[in-house]
Design goal:
The complex is a heterodimer of chains A (113) and B (112). Chain A is mostly beta strands and 113 residues long. Chain A has strands at 4-7, 10-13, 18-25, 31-37, 44-50, 53-57, 64-70, 73-79, 87-94, 103-104, 108-112. With 112 residues, chain B is mainly beta. Classes of the chains: A mainly beta (113), B mainly beta (112).
């Protein structure tokens, strides 16, 4: 599959669960991003990875833990989430020197019960 | 940090009319201004972008203008069609940074 893929597409989890979101890009990019998209709010940047190194953590609570094992894969590990964390989580990728041209994945719709 | 404001939050136009969405940004060091279109239930997709050394850019029915002095940029869609209905996001990027700051989005509805 080409482009940016995300799994799962939908996830329902309880506040005590631990789960992980996965993102994979097939574009040869070297920068990857996690965004949170909530209703009636701007897209919120959460984390940025350049060449597998985290270069940005936008004051995200520690219950969200990113992992970037290589330039093609990005994970978001979730634990003890709150209902207000329910949102669409979007992964994106780009070339490190063309960050304005980001390609988004389809997102994971997360519901925390 | 950068702050991007986008207006209006919703816009309804008749098919064939023009639509204009405006954004302002706070950091004069921002250099790249992309626009993304997100159709219902789909991912955001880049539709056009402009650099700070250019005042206007056009691609068929869409155009973007940039006023660096006033720190605002706009998306213009002419001859709107129902398939233009979507949420549009503007964004600004600092040249030295690695982050896009997004506006709040505009829901455009084109009525046939």
């Amino acid at each position: 599959e080409t482009g940016v893929t995300q799994t799962p597409r939908h996830l329902v989890m309880g506040m005590t669960n631990k789960k992980s979101l996965k993102c994979e890009q097939h574009l040869g990019h070297n920068a990857m991003y996690w965004y949170k998209q909530s209703a009636k709010k701007p897209l919120e940047l959460m984390f940025v990875y350049n060449f597998k190194e985290q270069t940005e953590n936008n004051s995200v609570p520690s219950r969200f833990s990113p992992e970037c094992p290589n330039s093609s894969h990005l994970f978001l590990h979730l634990h003890t989430l709150q209902p207000e964390d329910s949102a669409l989580y979007l992964c994106a990728s780009s070339q490190e020197d063309r960050t304005y041209e980001q390609y988004f994945g389809p997102g994971t719709r997360l519901t925390v019960t | 940090g950068e702050n991007v404001e986008q207006h209006p939050s919703t816009l309804s136009v008749q098919e064939g009319d023009s639509a204009v969405i405006k954004c302002t940004y706070s950091d004069s060091a921002s250099n790249y201004f992309p626009w993304y279109k997100q159709e219902l239930g789909k991912r955001p997709q880049l539709i056009i972008d402009i650099r700070s050394n250019v005042g206007e850019k056009k691609d068929q029915r869409i155009a973007v203008t940039l006023n660096k002095t006033a720190k605002h940029f706009s998306l213009h869609i002419t001859e709107t069609q129902p398939e233009d209905s979507a949420v549009y996001f503007c964004a600004a990027e600092l040249n030295a940074g690695n982050m896009l700051t997004f506006g709040g989005g505009t829901r455009l509805m084109v009525k046939p």
